[in-house]
Amino acid sequence: MKKFIETVKNIWSIEELRNKILITLSFMVIYRFAAQVTLPGLDGSVIADSLNSNSGGAGGILDMINMFTGGGFSRASVMALGVMPYISASIVVQLMGIAIPYLQKLKKDGESGNKKITQITRWLTIGITLVQGPAYIASLPSLGIPAEAFIMGQGNTLFWITSLVLLTTGSIFAMWLGEKITDKGIGNGISLLIMIGIIAGFPSAFAQEFASKTTNGGAGGIMMILIEIIVWFAVILACVYLVTAIRKVALQYARKTVAGTVTDVAGSRQYIPLKLNAAGVMPIIFAQAIMFVPSALVTADFTSEGVKSVAAMFADFSGVGYNVLFATLIIIFSFFYTAITVPTNEMAASIKRSGGFIPGIRPGKETDNYLDRILSLITFPGSIFLALLAILPAFVIKFGVQQSWSMFYGGTSLLIMVGVAIDTIQQINSHLLNRHYDGLMKTGTKRKSVA
């Protein structure tokens, strides 16, 4: 505890780090404030009463989007779409970078190419928002917004125009906030905005679970709450392991000669860190999007009763069929997304150019094959672990846990919170290592910054 307090003091004593943290917190507060502003033409008090009387969720991708936006999606806020259009645009650009030569060229152009890709992503974000905005406005009644909440009427032209403009503006503003946090603050801005949206639903979810177990003769009482908290911490530890686990591939560099001088780096070993879960939470997001199709088929009028019955089985969030298919899709997408984001051929070429080699493996094609085989071997258990965490909320519901609280037992929400927290802490540690050596290490002296 004493070391933790000392570390906090060291963080606050570094002006640059202190300012970055304050800027990050300020922007996050602004984002949360904007998420509470209801679209003009809607009665916020009526929506709030409707949400209080219907605290449960239907599960699926709509609940995931609502969690990512901190409740703004179900509240019909000006930030209802949040950073989701930007995330969609980023995924599209990343996937298109495999097939479109122009984007491939931009990736190789360094900083200038990255700026152009960022600009393309921004414009695509606006385009996606202009498509998602009208769809969201039209689906407000099906999302639980009562008819009496529409002051001007849902079909009013002015309501549609102002809502679409504000939804687009809200997404652009969220994107701008995320980029500013990344540039001026600490951590990845977009990820932090998603995380703060998820955390915003934590108090109410826990309060509902606590009330269900302790009031009106609820099953379990305080003891059951304690057991749930212990299990929750165990799941968090499992998530930390999944996010941080790596397979170290030994790497060695040959002896180099520069202008007649021999630089002896032979024998100095390094390693290539291959992550157990290189795909992150993307497989869950992709799989969740596909699992939304059965829900759409259930409500479609043109489908037969047989198709509807099968679709209803797979649309049940806690059903066996849903979770088996969901886990299978996650495993498939884990391999797919890892193959896209971890180009072993480029890694092998880079190692060869720098004069490095993996002991016992020839540079070039053999190195590529070796890295690809290692990556496939570690991706399989990583994908199974990820799938188990993703379907864990469905299991805890069977034990009487409220659905809103069960979402924090795994899946996208918990993995994002753990991943973002680890990334942010690592960035803070980097600043501390540069200025306060004693803040993190057992030995050494405190280094003073040079003005």
TrEMBL record:
The alphabetical list of record keywords is: Cell membrane, Membrane, Protein transport, Translocation, Transmembrane, Transmembrane helix, Transport
Q: Which family does it belong to?
A: Belongs to the SecY/SEC61-alpha family.
Originating gene: secY
Please state what the protein is called. Protein translocase subunit SecY
Transmembrane regions? 21-42, 83-103, 123-145, 157-177, 189-207, 219-246, 278-300, 320-342, 374-395, 407-425
Main localization of the protein described in the UniProt heading: membrane
As for membrane topology, the entry says: Multi-pass membrane protein
InterPro entries cross-referenced by the UniProt entry: SecY, SecY/SEC61-alpha, SecY_CS, SecY_dom_sf
Please give the function described in this protein's UniProt entry.
The central subunit of the protein translocation channel SecYEG. Consists of two halves formed by TMs 1-5 and 6-10. These two domains form a lateral gate at the front which open onto the bilayer between TMs 2 and 7, and are clamped together by SecE at the back. The channel is closed by both a pore ring composed of hydrophobic SecY resides and a short helix (helix 2A) on the extracellular side of the membrane which forms a plug. The plug probably moves laterally to allow the channel to open. The ring and the pore may move independently.
Q: Subunit structure, briefly? A: Component of the Sec protein translocase complex. Heterotrimer consisting of SecY, SecE and SecG subunits. The heterotrimers can form oligomers, although 1 heterotrimer is thought to be able to translocate proteins. Interacts with the ribosome. Interacts with SecDF, and other proteins may be involved. Interacts with SecA.
List, alphabetically, the NCBIfam families matched.
Answer: 3a0501s007
Q: Which domain of life is it from?
A: Bacteria
Query: Does the record's keyword annotation contain Manganese?
Result: no
Q: Which SUPFAM superfamilies match?
A: Preprotein translocase SecY subunit
Compartment(s) of residence: Cell membrane; Membrane
